[in-house]
Amino acid sequence: MEMGKNYTVKPNQSMPDVIVQATGSMEASIQVCADNKVGISDLPAVGSSYFISNAALAIAAGSGGNEISRYLQQNKIVIGTLGLQTALNMRLVLYPKLGVELNAPGFPTRHPYSLVLGTDFSDGFVNVYDLLEYYLTSNPLYLSPELAYHPGTSIPQNVSQVTLMTSKAAAWKLEWASDGSYLVVWSNVDADIPTVTFKDVNGNMAYYSPLIILDDEIQQCIDCLAAEITVQLIGNNAGMCTVRIERSHPPANWDKIGMLGMSWIGGGFDYGPDPHEPHNANKIVAELPAGTYTIGVRTSYSIASVPFPDSAITIVFEVY
User: Which of 56, 87, 208, 234 has the fewest CB atoms found within 10 Å of its own CB?
Assistant: First the structure.
């Protein structure tokens, strides 16, 4: 029994083009979109594959789809209407995703050691344009033993920076605690220029400000916490580009960490819920003209029901 077929997208094809080419009728559009979890206005990537189910083919056949499909095949006609439009594209231009490395003297010594935030310890840093050699921030960090932290009353230790910011890394000097607890390291995400901020030669700026958890007993980093952001091009229309932006957060390794919630920050452009998942606050859709745009996510946490400092990340993408 035939279970359907796969259709490969050809150049200049819109989603309606794909549906008519594959089934012979737009009557199958709802079924095809449901089967593939896409919208009729989504922009299919050339070479990508869409599943055409028997149900979709049956719907199309009921409205003359078989005859149209046969005509297209016999005359070797490929429908492609996007060539009639000015197609915009989208790309990430600055995504400052970092990781943590510790240079510790080893247990049980508790002399100062360095904590390095840099790209060598994490995949995913993106910069299309060259980064500047200077950064408009002194890159402060703060440290508190887990058991000593009390929001609004405790005085966190200001961690001293031991090296100047290089292109994609910075180091700080920290002291281990002496009570055997975990150490919490963070930065002020409400600062005018948060830690760690990057700027490229085109003036684009984005920052990565994680909440870092260090295990005092084994002198290792167990968590570097911040949200992750994806931006997807899903369509264009008359010089506008439609993008879907999604936020997520990887699970924490430390079982005491609780995530209270995520919120969108920055933007400066109008966006709304994803029409395919209108109740999912982690997905938004925006229709944008050519230009450069910044969006970010702030995440709040609790440890043993006590609110702890937030993390934040911003990224820059370009519609062109």
Answer: 87
**φ, ψ dihedrals at 12, nearest 5°:** 70, 20
| 194-240: pLDDT as tens digits | 888 888 999 999 999 999 998 877 778 899 999 999 999 988 765 78
Q: Which distant-in-sequence residues (6+ apart) come within 8 Å of 50 by Cβ?
A: 6, 7, 9, 18, 22, 32, 36, 38, 44
CB 224 within 8 A of CB 194: no
The 3-class secondary structure across 253-280, one letter per residue, is CCCCEEEEEEEEEEECCCCEECCCCCCC
Is the separation of the CB atoms in 226 and 211 below 8 Å? Answer: yes
State the total domains in the chain.
2
Looking at the fold, whether 148 and 26 belong to one and the same domain comes out as: no
Q: How far are the Cα atoms of 133, 138, 230, 265 from residue 295, in angstroms, in the given order?
A: 24, 23, 10, 6
pLDDT single digits (tens) 47-61: 788 999 999 999 999
Report which listed range, 86-95, 148-157, 161-170, is most confident: 86-95
Which residue, of 36, 65, 84, is where some domain finishes?
A: 84
